[in-house]
Write a structure and sequence with these properties.
By secondary structure, this protein is an alpha/beta fold. 45% of the residues lie in helices and 20% in strands. The protein is built from 8 helices and 7 strands; from the N terminus they run αβαβαβαβαβααβαβ. The longest helix has 17 residues. This is KaiC-like domain-containing protein.
Length: 183
């Protein structure tokens, strides 16, 4: 098991990193991954199901992170509000967290639109996705996503709460990953 810095050094070339943390550190771990990706020169796409993108952007700004190269596929804000928020810069909103088809289409468009840039995709978080999706459906999506990122030579981080995933799903996540880190 390696750490976040060495994982980021190896990021790119279609590598998938399973990032495990405690529930108490989930928000900080997500920030650390995105910060390291941005500092390494990656265009960063955050698929957020855990927290609304306007709140995440505020957190990033307060911590001094330049968010101009961070984009969000936000699957929770529109679902929670029933409408789009005022802060829609660098964000695409999906109707609800279980709408994997739209998430996949939007991600594909974002990746194809900037295929020449180093890109890092962060899924925040697998645990929250399980609230809205059955395990087999989520497993198929993560397999699809892993294959897409590898083929497009993009880096992927799957953020999970270490003790919050059933053993069978954890085994699948490890199978789809090239590296496992604890944050």
């Amino acid at each position: 098991m390696s750490d976040l810095n060495s994982a980021m050094d190896n990021c790119g070339k279609g590598r998938i990193i399973l990032s495990m943390t405690s529930a108490e550190k989930l928000t900080d771990a997500s920030y650390d991954i995105v910060k390291n990706a941005v500092n390494a020169g990656h265009r960063t796409i955050v698929i957020t199901v855990n927290n609304p993108s306007p709140l995440i952007k505020d957190q990033y700004r307060k911590q001094g992170l330049d968010i101009s190269n961070i984009f969000f596929i936000d699957a929770i804000t529109k679902y929670a509000l029933g409408s789009l928020p005022e802060d829609i810069d660098n964000a695409v909103f999906v109707s609800n967290p279980s709408n994997l088809t739209d998430i996949g289409i939007i991600l594909t468009e974002m990746l194809k639109g900037n295929a020449d840039e180093k890109t890092c995709v962060v899924v925040d978080s697998i645990n929250t996705m399980l609230i809205y999706l059955p395990t087999p459906t989520l497993t198929k999506f993560i397999h699809f996503l892993s294959s897409k990122l590898r083929l497009m030579k993009c880096c992927g981080y799957y953020l999970t709460v270490k003790d919050g995933i059933d053993p069978m799903l954890m085994m699948q996540l490890k199978t789809f990953s090239d590296e496992i880190i604890e944050i």
